[in-house]
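ok posting inputs for the S-adenosylmethionine job
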Amino acid sequence: MSNQNQRAVAATIDLSNSESPIWDDHQAAFYLKGIEQSDYAEKVGASLLEVIGTQTNLLDIGAGVGTVSRRIIADNALWTAIEPNHFLASYLTSHAAKWSYQLSVMQSSWQRLTANEIKPHKTSLAANTSGPVYDTKSFWHWQRNYTKDLMIWIVPAQDGPRGKCLSGFLSPELHGEAVGSSLETIVDELDESMQPHQILTVDWTFRQDFSTHEEADQYFQHNFNATADPEKAQAIANYLTLHLQQEGEQFFASAAKKSAVLIWKFN
Ligand SMILES: C[S@@+](CC[C@H](N)C(=O)[O-])C[C@H]1O[C@@H](n2cnc3c(N)ncnc32)[C@H](O)[C@@H]1O
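and the output
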């Protein structure tokens, strides 16, 4: 890939009113380590590929490191990756030369990009990102504007919690998140003319390894016991003793996930 094809749009992200703030680099690195150990790409990517085939021109919104998108794009495909997080955008940029795609990385949220900056693409993908869940209607119109033929959303559809990657590993009292698939809410938000033409669901498992039991305990205490309540700290510690799995030197936690894949075909 030539450097000319890379475009990094530096942007100061201010989404302080958003329900889903952009990750910091620490959260992004945690996600990347986990998603690489999970069967997300293998299960969701393979199912999507079976339905839509290989793509040659993709706008990827909230691209992460292209875990799913790299399963569906052809060699030499034109791939525009919108990714606001610095760590993930840098990962894409630093891997671009090794990959056989014409990759443009735009480090920005979708809210900050306008028609002056992006052209319509044949296919667009928003996989497990905040737009479809928190800004359903306005995001739909925004994405439609930049899509010629095929538009795809991948959204959480498990019956369990859908906040943090590993909340589904914990019991409901410990994760404290709302539970239930977001699919119905999303579809209800959309007008008749905006309804997806096809929906499929795919089960997969998020898995995260920890080097030590203490590292796992620190992660869960930090993320699910923000006030350091001593009773809750003990309950989390007890739960980990019972449920954390050991494999060789490593400890791992996993959470069952379901993704709904929503597909619109315009041509
Ligand atoms: C769970 S990750 C999914 C990454 C990738 N699409 C995948 O399926 O593996 C969510 C991604 O959406 C990005 N994101 C969150 N809010 C965004 C926004 N407003 N605009 C663009 N991307 C956003 C995050 O930085 C993160 O990389």
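notes: Strands lie at 55-61, 73-82, 102-106, 121-127, 147-156, 198-210, 245-247, 250-265. DSSP finds ten helices and eight strands in the chain.
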